[in-house]
Amino acid sequence: xxxxxxxxxxxxxxxxxxxxxxxxxxxxxxxxxxxxxxxxxxxxxxxxxxxxxxxxxxxxxxxxxxxxxxxxxxxxxxxxxxxxxxxxxxxxxxxxxxxxxxxxxxxxxxxxxxxxxxxxxxxxxxxxxxxxxxxxxxxxxxxxxxxxxxxxxxxxxxxxxxxxxxxxxxxxxxxxxxxxxxxxxxxxxxxxxxxxxxxxxxxxxxxxxxxxxxxxxxxxxxxxxxxxxxxxxxxxxxxxxxxxxxxxxxxxxxxxxxxxxxxxxxxxxxxxxxxxxxxxxxxxxxxxxxxxxxxxxxxxxxxxxxxxxxxxxxxxxxxxxxxxxxxxxxxxxxxxxxxxxxxxxxxxxxxxxxxxxxxxxxxxxxxxxxxxxxxxxxxxxxxxxxxxxxxxxxxx
Length: 396
Known about the structure:
Blueprint: H1 20-33, H2 37-52, H3 58-70, H4 75-118, H5 124-151, H6 155-171, H7 176-190, H8 197-207, H9 210-214, H10 222-237, H11 245-256, H12 262-274, H13 282-312, H14 315-321, H15 325-353, H16 357-371, H17 376-395
Helix pairs in contact: 1-4, 2-4, 2-5, 3-4, 3-15, 4-13, 5-12, 5-15, 5-16, 5-17, 6-7, 6-15, 7-15, 10-13, 12-13, 16-17
């Protein structure tokens, strides 16, 4: 094994047992075969990097998960960026973020070319009919493991978790104020403050960095300029799961601007869901339909730029203050709410994907195969193949 690089000065983290190259290769692989959406992706990171390899401390993973929920942007991509930052600072965050997003970007652009060349993706419905059910099985098992790992037997954390789950199920959205309130509640219960300075510090690095990104002027020069401004705005305002960006995009690209038809937008979302990596890569497909490769590149860059900046800018403050009892309690409360919201999202997505007996059986079979350690890509491939046969009979 190559000699590990030394830790960056001032990080407070032990010397890594891996090289930056190894971490980049891992995220390149995860971006290539990581199916299941944000919940499954963050669970893969925990399983692989925390439990099996021991590259990332459990405390750093939890800090990254909490920060990813507090800041706007796609959850899995933000967590990947943070984990790259842990030992290798800005360079690590940048290279890991690019490695994680690049494979799905290439796949989506290829599908966009196919879509334009052949006038649509008639097989998408058949494939996603089955893949959607398999994905629910993957997400459900991942959420179960994350819940068991995070909450333990603490009743307050379970209360926060259940509240966040119910709110997510009822509203079908994720509210950042709920995460903040959960953090404050657990902080007040477990580590009552002697003074309010800590809260002001936390609020400063959790919210203030977002202000420049949110002040996007609605003025543009040309289509690429419009694409950049709109998707930067979208990336800066959407919290939590990458799926949360879907209704936001629909209102902007279909209803307001008329860039896509309803069917084109649904096809764009389907493409993102049947490809590995972050779900918000659907923006690259939309950009490709609007302006080819340049449009795809601009849309993807703009979407991930706020997530990148709002992860690396607050990261040093998490490292500096994250070990304090009051801040640690706040982070744990936010994490419990995040896990609750993720579990609630399983129900929300399940209502759309589990629509009959075959899809229900596919979800159950997926969970059983995962327990037997069958690789997720093989399960997704088998589900996609079965969809081609099942959909004409049950879903058509």
